[in-house]
């Protein structure tokens, strides 16, 4: 089996690479590439994302054929894909960071700034917060409810269909922190930085 | 609920761990990779490496330390010291740092903060503010505490937030290495003026000081070096103590 981490020149993905390699060991091949052929032929794809919604979408669009290849992989072929942080946010139709920007449109909804209640809550939402698991998700196998995960973000995904939400976390409001829609998975938190429990989630995704 | 973070800091020089008393009198005490692993296994919420003499010396050793550590520790890793340019930040991030803290360069050339936060995202840009009291003001020091810039710490903090910093690491130069506690007045003043998280640093001597940093300083996270490093307390003990004082921590 091989898992491809999409390297599309946006932000720092070394932690994602390190964590997947740690979990995969010798049994699974972890590739890091933006090569369309490699993505097409892989069994699973990880879409990381750091920086702004706009910078990530722009970076995806800058690689000719990448968005079409990801669409084919996740929507037509229905192969497993995990979005992390802005990688998850880009599933939305639209994001409002910097300027209104069109997302991948895989899960209807928008990405908007977390309401900080006029400065009462600090942004970014940085640190360890507990996840409240709302529905069974394959990537949460053997993960206890209220486990701590590491977050760092100022924007949140607000999906139209709440049934896709697999977990929320409580900050200034209830923030969507993971989604599952058929073969598409996403976490707002960083499993690659969430210690052993985060690696467990990565292991669950690899084992799907 | 979001938890307050405990961040053990390791001062690194030429690839080895040291801890300065007021930034002088360095004592060698260990391998940074092993130390970081001990901390992350012990429940540290983040690890911080400070390359202390980096402004003056060849600093390639830190890249190797970061590379090795990021393959073993799966909690956030912040690296600072001697970071001068967007290119330096890029190199550290590529080696596996999750955040980079910028001190002297942020004062001398705020463009570095503006440009790097745009390029890599605010989430990985920490501005380190070394401040010292001067009568009723607090002023910014650079170059590891050697140069007084005369710049007001509060004004500078606000400017850094506007420039795109994701967090501020506030160190009291009066307190650093003294073990008499954080300058909670300074920390709470800065925390109340900015909407980004503030990390308290400089002066921790016991576990009550950590409590004070959060309760009185309104810090989102507390950083300490020697109380953990010399085995006076473990991170786990610190967390249990904070928990007993009603402070939300990840246990």
By secondary-structure content and strand pairing, the structural class of chain B works out as: alpha/beta
Query: What letter string, H or E per element, gives the SSE order of chain B?
Result: EEHEHEHEHHEEEHEHEHEHH
CATH second-level architecture of chain B: Alpha-Beta Barrel
* CATH hierarchy class name of chain A: Alpha Beta
Most extensive interface, chain pair and sizes: A-B, 38 and 33 residues
CA-based shape of chain B: globular
DSSP strand tally of chain A? 13
Q: What share of the residues of chain B does DSSP label as strand, in percent?
A: 15-25%
Sheet with the most strands: spatial strand order of chain B:
1-3-4-5-6-9-10-11
Oligomer: heterodimer
Care to describe what's here?
- The complex is a heterodimer of chains A (208) and B (251).
- A 9-stranded mixed sheet of chain A has the order 2-1-3-4-13-12-11-8-9.
- By secondary structure, chain A is an alpha/beta fold.
- Chain A is globular, with a radius of gyration of 16 Å.
- The longest helix of chain A is centred in the C-terminal third of the chain and has 12 residues, at 195-206.
- Chain A starts with a strand and ends with a helix.
- Chain A is built from 6 helices and 13 strands.
- Chain A is 25% helix and 31% strand.
- Chain B is of the alpha/beta class.
- Chain B has one domain: Alpha-Beta Barrel (TIM Barrel).
- Helix content of chain B is 36%, strand content 24%.
- Chain B contains 10 helices and 11 strands.
- Chain B has helices spanning 32-41, 60-70, 86-95, 104-108, 111-120, 153-163, 184-193, 207-215, 226-229, 235-244; strands spanning 5-13, 16-18, 47-51, 77-80, 99-102, 125-134, 137-142, 147-152, 167-172, 198-201, 221-224.
- Chain B has an 8-stranded parallel barrel, surrounded by 8 helices.
- In chain B, helix 7 links the parallel strand 9 (167-172) and strand 10 (198-201).
- The longest helix of chain B is centred in the first third of the chain and has 11 residues, at 60-70.
- Residues 20-28 of chain B have low confidence and may be disordered.
- Chains A and B meet through helix 1, strand 8, strand 9 and helix 6 of A and helix 3 and helix 5 of B.
């Amino acid at each position: 089996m091989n898992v491809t981490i999409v390297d599309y020149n946006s932000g720092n993905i070394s932690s994602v690479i390190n964590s997947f390699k740690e979990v995969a060991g010798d049994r699974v091949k972890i590739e890091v590439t933006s090569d369309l052929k490699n993505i097409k032929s892989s069994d699973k794809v990880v879409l990381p994302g750091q920086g702004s919604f706009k910078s990530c979408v722009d970076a995806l669009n800058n690689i000719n054929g990448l968005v079409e290849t990801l669409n084919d992989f996740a929507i037509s072929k229905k192969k497993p894909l995990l979005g992390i942080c802005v990688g998850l946010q880009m599933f939305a139709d639209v994001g409002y960071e910097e300027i209104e920007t069109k997302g991948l449109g895989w899960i209807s909804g928008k990405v908007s700034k977390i309401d900080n209640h006029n400065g009462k809550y600090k942004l970014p939402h940085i640190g360890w917060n507990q996840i409240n698991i709302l529905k069974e998700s394959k990537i949460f196998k053997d993960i206890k409810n209220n486990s701590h995960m590491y977050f760092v973000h100022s924007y949140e995904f607000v999906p139209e269909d709440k049934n896709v939400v697999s977990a929320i976390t409580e900050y200034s409001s209830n923030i969507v922190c993971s989604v599952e829609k058929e073969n598409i998975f996403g976490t707002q938190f960083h499993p690659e930085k969430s210690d052993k429990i985060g690696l467990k989630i990565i292991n669950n995704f690899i084992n799907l | 609920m979001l938890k307050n973070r405990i961040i053990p800091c390791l001062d690194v020089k030429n690839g080895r761990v040291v801890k300065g008393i007021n930034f002088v009198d360095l004592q060698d005490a260990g391998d940074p990779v092993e130390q970081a692993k001990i901390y992350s296994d012990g429940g540290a919420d983040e690890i911080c490496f400070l390359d202390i003499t980096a402004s003056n010396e060849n600093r390639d050793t830190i890249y190797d330390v970061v590379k090795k550590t990021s393959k073993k520790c799966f909690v956030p890793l912040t690296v600072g010291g001697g970071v001068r340019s967007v290119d330096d930040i890029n190199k550290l991030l590529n080696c596996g740092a999750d955040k980079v803290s910028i001190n002297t360069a942020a004062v001398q050339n705020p463009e570095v903060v503006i440009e790097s936060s745009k390029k890599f995202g605010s989430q990985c840009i920490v501005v380190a503010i070394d401040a010292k009291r001067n009568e009723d003001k607090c002023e910014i020091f650079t170059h590891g505490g050697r140069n007084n810039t005369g710049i007001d710490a509060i004004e500078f903090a606000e400017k850094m937030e506007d420039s795109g910093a994701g967090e501020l690491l506030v160190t009291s130069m009066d307190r650093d290495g003294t073990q008499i506690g954080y300058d909670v007045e300074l920390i709470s003043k800065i925390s109340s003026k900015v909407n980004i998280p503030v990390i308290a640093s400089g002066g921790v001597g016991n576990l009550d000081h950590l409590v004070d940093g959060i309760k009185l300083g309104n810090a989102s996270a507390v950083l300490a070096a020697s109380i953990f490093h010399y085995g006076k307390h473990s991170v786990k003990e610190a967390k249990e103590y904070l928990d007993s004082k009603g402070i939300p921590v990840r246990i």
